[in-house]
Amino acid sequence: xxxxxxxxxxxxxxxxxxxxxxxxxxxxxxxxxxxxxxxxxxxxxxxxxxxxxxxxxxxxxxxxxxxxxxxxxxxxxxxxxxxxxxxxxxxxxxxxxxxxxxxxxxxxxxxxxxxxxxxxxxxxxxxxxxxxxxxxxxxxxx
Length: 142
Hints:
The chain is α+β, with helices and mostly antiparallel strands. The protein has helices at residues 7-23, 93-104, 122-132, 138-141, and strands at residues 31-34, 40-44, 56-62, 66-72, 80-84. Helix content is 31%, strand content 20%. A 5-stranded antiparallel β-sheet has the order 1-2-3-4-5, with helices on one face.
């Protein structure tokens, strides 16, 4: 299967979404990736919104729209986007975590308009993702 991306980029996306999950203090197998174009990631959240108590919540990322806060009524239904983070298509994991915490606290306005990203082509996105695949030097952790 031709995924259109190399292993380093795939590892980078995996690590990036894993860092987002860590920043959100999620445990277990909370996310899945689709490496075919357009690449996307699904990150299940542990909280339901007070306005939608019967729906699961998740953050969804794709290479065209960035991060979105979504609802899922059941396993058979499609995701409903309530709001987009906007800004950078690949923001820092901490920025995504702040967005996620605000989303599950129901403190974000509903914004179903697709964000427009300028200046981030597919090749640049692949380079940025590949940087996440690089090991963090031990000295940088301290």
